[in-house]
Amino acid sequence: MLWLYVILVLYIFYTFTKQKYNYWIKFGVKGPSPLPFVGNFGKVMLQKESVNQCVKDIYKQYSEEKIVGIYRGFQPILLIRDPELIKQILIKDFNFFQDRGISTSRSRISENLFSAEGEKWRILRQKLTPVFTSKRLKDMIPLIENCIENYLNYVEHLVENNIEHELRLLASKYTLQAIVSCAFGLNIDTYSDTQNEFTIMAKRVFSPTTIVKFITILDMIIPGIRRIIKSSNDISDFFLNLVRKVIEERKNKPMLRKDFMDLMIELKEQGNISGKNQYTGTAEIQIDDNLIAAQALVFYAAGFETSSATMSFMLYELALNQNIQDKVYQEIHKITEKYNNKLTYESIKELTYLEMVFEETLRKHSVAGILFRKCKTNYSLPGTKVILQKGTPVIISVSGLQQDPNYFPNPEIFNPDNFLPENKNKRPQYTHMPFGDGPRNCIGMRFAIVQSMMGIAAFLRKFKVIPSTKTRTKLRYDPKAITLTSLDGIWLKIVKRS
Ligand code: HEM
After folding, report:
1. I need a surface site. Which of 21, 162, 407, 485 has the fewest CB within 10 A?
2. Distance 301 CA to ligand 1 centre (A)
3. DSSP state of 477
4. pLDDT class of 221 with cuts at 50, 70, 90
């Protein structure tokens, strides 16, 4: 009798799996064969491969297709390869694809700009956009200059004492100090005080515990499970206390800094904010300490890790390509001479070759390699037979596009000339998007560019990087990391220029 039950269970499971994994076949969409339970993300679940690498491999494998059908667990996901369709999703039909559909664990401060949906996101984005206007960025320059001075002094100390230092960690000391100073108006010592709360918190945010890792994997099989699990309180407590402390300190004082915290305090005084939109519906947001702390956390987390990774990848490529480093140095020298030997906000804008090097670094080592969107209503994808069901996730492989030989010849070679205006014009749009694109692109893009370009230019004026015995000629990326991270770190020798 038992064997009959076993056969019945196996049969039910077989028909369930077959029906689920028939989803894309019905629309004639090609894609890799999924495995039961894990879909196409088996290696990701075993932590042998990052999601970025997995999706990039699928992008490469289906070089003839405009779209590819894949499965996360049993959930169908559409990978968009074609730049025209990408434009459709990110720009033209943005109203249907406004949300990312990223599930986060429940906590008092989980309502942040990155994961917010619908009208709530629209209100938050509108209210937070003024933090990064050109005027505000310009006002932040003295704060960034101060952080650069500390950074250069520390590097000088390392060089004089012959101390080796891993480059990503080194850059993160600078970018962490810069974001904490520019967003919260606090001066922290990331150099001698390695036990400062912000550095410890960075480790907590970017090194998830075993249970969080397990939940993340489970969420791939049962999408949304993360939402019903409550995340630990210490990260929430830290940001809530921080926000309360800064608000208290600024109480009854004129708003001089006009930074992130000033803006949030101003909003808090307005109380609740409601909004209505034909696509996003209605929503009311209560601007309280929890909501402010949630935005503080996302600015902090998105703000320093991505920029420090990019800065260290850039120095790595310059160490391996000395001719490019020389050219960058000559340009910095020439432009700063014009500005009385100073690196100003205006002078940075004239460092056009350095900007090309920055863009090429983000092309080759895109720290955030995938864009996520979720379809809001049933949607007929133009030029195809596909009708996306409401809620279907859609993804774009930024690193796949940026390393596609059709758009970037010899993609594995570091070549800043890829960003010469004549070469840029030859490529279709939406093939280089390290900061995403459309109304939901990276809100901190301009801050990231100014912070990284100023930091790198100041560094290269004083120092040169060359490969050391520990430098790898080909980087290996960490399969478990959230953003693109070198598995072995980035090791270079820093030499002081005479
Ligand atoms: C090199 C540095 C950085 C890179 C490569 C990067 C990349 C990205 C990407 C790819 C997205 C998703 C865009 C999309 O879906 O279209 C994003 C979103 C976001 N980034 Fe960045 N980012 C960087 C620095 C920063 C900084 C410095 C901040 C804040 C100070 C920041 C804050 C955010 C936020 C809040 C979002 C969500 C925006 C929204 O949903 O409205 N990022 N970033």
Report:
1. 162
2. 10
3. B
4. low
